[in-house]
Write a sequence for this structure.
């Protein structure tokens, strides 16, 4: 709605699929406006020609449309009233509840001064051994699942969110199907966790460009709870590939020269701005980001997963292990870069070496399997690695495992002792002496 | 008088300013915005309109805002007190900034303005001096920090007056010099220099040859880098680029280490902030942080400053090199810098080169690497900048513009391999694809045989050949099967595995294994060569694997033990005994 002093502009000089250009003065860069009631944002100003990106699209916009500038960039009102609520990409409630009140903050705010960050060093236990044992998560970390669309990443993410000990869970949905949105809603409410949840949702039924606001909305809320309230906040962003698709739509309509895979040349910086909001703050609060990047046909060289991999602190891969018929966290391709901050420090001393030994032997099993498939004879060692791999896959890597880290380590020693000789595991002698199951 | 201007257009961080007077390419300008001043650099001029890249977010900026051009290019302040600082890409001291979040338009001075430095004069009144001449020195974290005639002063000068030994702050007038016409200049301890221009106050730049110890066996033994050398580390994500870079910066035998964290993860910089003040420099016993300067422009900080950050780091490096010090400069990652160039070139609507990178990428990269090197200063002293950059190739594909252009100029190539990383064989440096051109320099061979051992290069070449042979055989075994090749093939293969496990693989997180002195590397190289030259005989190929696995296990325990400790010697003895038990009589192959 227009306030008394707001000037209305009506001279639109150009309209494209996503943008329109209007003659106006005194407009700030990044400022919000409404065009025929539709929300838009300033993306370019040359003299008195202001180009606006219209989130919903420009369908039906006439050249005499009313353009009202709001004098502010996109913002969110933050307060404790956000907890337990569901919003759309603009931060408006979609759960029928009242509009929350609070301090209005511009979204996509400034970066944390790197010298003010603390080194992430708190374990986030998920009970999933493929994560806790091999790819331990740490508070303040940012890590995506790299998954094909048919893999159960949303289920795993919901499990992680509910098991992790956090004060708030903020779900940012981008191009999520309505079914998946309802799934999350149901799982969280069944677990009695709704009061810890805040959700910003852009479903496949909403305009694509709107989803560009979702991560910044979610992270502005996260920063409020982590910095102002010193809470531990877990942010779930799914699916970042849809976010990147929206970026490419906008840059294409702005006539920018695309770089790899039709993505804008600034993709790396755009994604980094989001992921780098993950931080451990000095006062104890933290923002941890677990995201999903869907792949097409498992291709991680595509610009989106590729740039993501360079930004995030590792990635998690899911894979169906046909030998045991379970979905596992792939130990080869998954990686948590911050695991050494907690492994053997916040967990038992033998953790790093046990993890490495088991993964190395699992790799030997993969080689043995290739040999077998090529019709070669297997050595005794090969057969032992294969049976180890089956047990390891079933009892530790499968995503439906729920153990604490000590149980995971003991279980791994048990499997190592069952299938191998101490000299075959290549571990420090002191550890073997202490933990080998005779 | 300074040129003024008015903002005419804004496209993200590219701002078009109409100027009312002369403007220079790369000149710095400040744009007024709601009481703050946003720093920007001129990158294109068309008529009255100068396109500037703003080093900050332009949110809320309006057409009609005032701008003021500064009459100089982007420059850094050089003086005592840079060591131990955490700077951003524009040389602002990050620790002096208030609050948790970076604030737009907040610029902080990089040096301590109050601290008193103990100054000892080197030059005396009447001495002839020129740019880069040493006037005196102060002790900066146990490094002899030379106070020099500013690099910007062209021509010859005579010292009219120099202050006596004593404690002064950086602004104290320490010398007065006079040029041939009698014009007098007063000098203090600081000077400024534009970062994009190399500092060239040296007499020559000979070929580098002295080994720069990094403590990483896969580098020092197999593909050594030298003082004043250049190298690069390309690798897909997850192959251990950053861990390797951190290892090198912790362990390298350099006087000064400058880390340019260029467009990478903030938590990686935090790791350095957290660990370096605690860690001890293995060569001097002092805290690592004391010799380190961090230039941090992480991926979420403004893109334009990212490009500046590598130049800032290099200029600081050149400053310390001019004092006759050994500088190691690490940039992680040069690809992010290239991407920053690409983003701007794209906004300027320039015609793109390969992968939308700017056309002059190749010359930008080679000019930058060219600033490294080992130099003889005008006073005969020597200094060096060793530069190692990482490259993050898109999709892990080494046939992309940044990798290819870097390969043309860097002399060492450390290829990180996905396959090795997947198998947790760290550091994942591929021993066969990687190279060091310095290894072929006769100067280096002379040096290494004099300083380490006579037959060093011979043994290293032998090891490399064995690794290659091992790889070929492993491919044959994959095709023909274990039974399909003679038992001797298995022996050759397992000898190469032994080299891989004992020399190449190194645990960067183990206190002892992470850093191997060159004496210890010699010891390992001798031992491994001895084992590899032994002729073994086995009946079955399975026996070969069993034997070598046991041998590797002992070797790894040895690597985890303190050099020449009782444990260490015990494992060496055990290893030798095992070898002699299986040796085919006593003949050497």
């Amino acid at each position: 709605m227009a306030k008394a002093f707001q000037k209305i502009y009506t001279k639109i000089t150009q309209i494209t699929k996503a943008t329109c250009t209007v003659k106006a003065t005194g407009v700030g860069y990044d400022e919000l406006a409404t065009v025929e009631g539709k929300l838009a944002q300033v993306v370019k100003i040359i003299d008195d020609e202001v180009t606006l990106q219209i989130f919903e699209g420009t369908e039906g916009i006439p050249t005499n449309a009313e353009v009202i500038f709001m004098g502010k960039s996109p913002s969110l009102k933050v307060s404790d009233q956000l907890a337990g609520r569901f919003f759309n990409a603009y931060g408006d409630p979609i759960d029928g509840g009242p509009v929350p009140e609070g301090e209005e903050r511009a979204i996509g705010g400034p970066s944390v001064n790197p010298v003010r960050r603390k080194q992430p060093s708190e374990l986030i236990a998920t009970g999933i051994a493929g994560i806790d044992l091999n790819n331990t998560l740490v508070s303040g970390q940012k890590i995506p699942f790299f998954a094909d669309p048919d893999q159960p990443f949303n289920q795993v993410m919901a499990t992680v969110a509910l098991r992790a000990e956090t004060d708030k869970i903020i779900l940012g949905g981008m191009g999520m199907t309505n079914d998946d949105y309802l799934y999350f809603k149901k799982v969280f409410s069944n677990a009695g966790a709704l009061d810890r949840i805040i959700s910003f949702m852009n479903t496949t039924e909403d305009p694509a460009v709107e989803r560009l606001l979702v991560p910044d909305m979610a992270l502005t809320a996260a920063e409020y709870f982590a910095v102002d309230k010193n809470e531990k906040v877990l942010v779930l962003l799914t699916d970042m590939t849809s976010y990147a698709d929206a970026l490419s739509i906008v840059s294409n309509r702005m006539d920018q020269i695309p770089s790899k895979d039709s993505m804008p040349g600034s993709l790396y910086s755009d994604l980094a701005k989001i992921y780098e909001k993950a931080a451990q703050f000095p006062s104890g609060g933290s923002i941890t980001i677990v995201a999903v990047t869907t792949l097409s046909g498992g291709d991680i060289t595509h610009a989106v997963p590729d740039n993501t991999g360079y930004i995030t602190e590792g990635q998690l891969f899911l894979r169906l292990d046909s030998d045991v018929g379970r979905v596992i966290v792939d130990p080869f391709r998954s990686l948590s870069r911050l695991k050494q901050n907690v492994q053997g420090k916040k967990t038992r001393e033998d953790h790093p070496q046990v993890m490495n030994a088991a993964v190395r032997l699992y790799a030997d099993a993969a080689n043995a399997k290739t040999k077998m498939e090529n019709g070669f004879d297997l050595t005794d060692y090969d057969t032992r690695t294969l049976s180890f791999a089956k047990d390891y896959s079933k009892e530790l890597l499968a995503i439906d495992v729920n153990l604490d880290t000590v149980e995971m380590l003991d279980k791994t020693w048990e499997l190592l002792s069952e299938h191998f000789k101490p000299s075959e595991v290549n571990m420090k002698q002191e550890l073997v002496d202490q933990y080998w199951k005779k | 008088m300074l040129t003024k201007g008015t903002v005419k257009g804004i496209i993200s961080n590219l701002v078009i300013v109409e100027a009312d007077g002369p403007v220079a390419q790369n000149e710095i300008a400040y744009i007024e915005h709601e009481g703050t001043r946003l720093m920007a650099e001129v990158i294109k001029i068309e008529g009255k309109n100068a396109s500037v890249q703003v080093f900050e977010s332009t949110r809320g900026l309006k057409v009609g805002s005032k701008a003021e051009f500064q009459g100089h290019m982007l420059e850094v302040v050089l003086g005592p007190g840079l060591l131990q600082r955490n700077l951003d890409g524009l040389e602002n001291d990050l620790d002096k900034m208030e609050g948790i979040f970076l604030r737009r338009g907040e610029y902080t001075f990089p040096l301590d303005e109050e601290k008193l430095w103990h100054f000892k004069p080197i030059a005396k009144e009447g001495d002839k001096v020129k740019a880069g001449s040493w006037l005196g020195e102060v002790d900066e974290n146990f490094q002899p920090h030379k106070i020099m005639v500013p690099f910007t002063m062209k021509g010859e000068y005579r010292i009219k007056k120099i202050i006596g030994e004593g404690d002064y702050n950086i602004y104290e007038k320490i010398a007065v010099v006079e040029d041939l016409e009698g014009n007098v200049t007063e000098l203090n301890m600081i000077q400024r220099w534009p970062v994009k221009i190399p500092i060239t106050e040296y007499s020559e730049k000979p070929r580098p040859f002295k080994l720069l110890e990094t403590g990483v066996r896969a580098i020092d033994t197999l593909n050594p880098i030298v003082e004043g050398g250049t190298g690069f580390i390309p690798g897909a994500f997850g192959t251990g680029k950053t861990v390797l870079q951190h290892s090198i910066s912790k362990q390298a035998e350099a006087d000064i280490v400058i880390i340019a964290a260029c467009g990478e993860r903030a938590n990686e910089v935090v790791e350095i902030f957290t660990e370096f003040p605690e860690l001890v420099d293995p060569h001097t016993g002092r805290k690592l942080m004391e010799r380190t300067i961090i230039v941090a422009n992480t991926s979420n900080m403004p893109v334009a400053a990212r490009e500046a950050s590598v130049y800032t780091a290099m200029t600081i490096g050149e400053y310390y090199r001019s004092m006759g010090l050994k500088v190691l400069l690490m940039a992680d990652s040069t690809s992010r810098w290239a991407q920053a160039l690409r983003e701007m070139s794209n906004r300027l609507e320039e015609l793109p080169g390969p992968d939308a990178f700017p056309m002059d990428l190749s010359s930008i990269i080679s000019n930058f690497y060219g600033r490294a090197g080992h130099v003889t200063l005008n006073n005969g002293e020597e200094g060096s900048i060793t530069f190692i950059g990482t490259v993050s190739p898109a999709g892990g594909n080494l046939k992309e513009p940044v990798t290819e252009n870097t390969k043309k100029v860097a002399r060492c190539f450390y290829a990180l391999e996905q396959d090795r990383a997947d198998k947790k064989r760290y550091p994942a440096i591929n021993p066969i694809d990687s190279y060091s051109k310095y290894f072929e320099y006769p100067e280096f061979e002379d040096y290494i045989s004099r300083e380490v051992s006579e037959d060093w290069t011979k043994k290293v070449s032998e090891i490399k050949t064995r690794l290659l042979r091992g790889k070929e055989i492993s491919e044959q075994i994959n095709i023909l099967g274990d039974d399909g090749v003679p038992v001797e093939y298995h022996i050759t293969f397992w000898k190469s595995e032994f080299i891989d496990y004992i020399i190449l693989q190194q645990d960067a997180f183990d206190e002892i294994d992470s850093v191997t002195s060159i004496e210890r590397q010699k010891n390992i190289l001798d031992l491994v060569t001895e084992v590899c030259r032994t002729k073994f005989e086995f009946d079955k190929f399975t026996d070969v694997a069993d034997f070598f696995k046991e041998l590797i296990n002992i070797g790894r325990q040895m690597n985890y033990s303190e050099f020449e400790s009782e444990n260490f010697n015990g494992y060496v003895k055990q290893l030798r005994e095992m070898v002699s038990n299986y040796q085919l009589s006593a003949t050497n192959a």
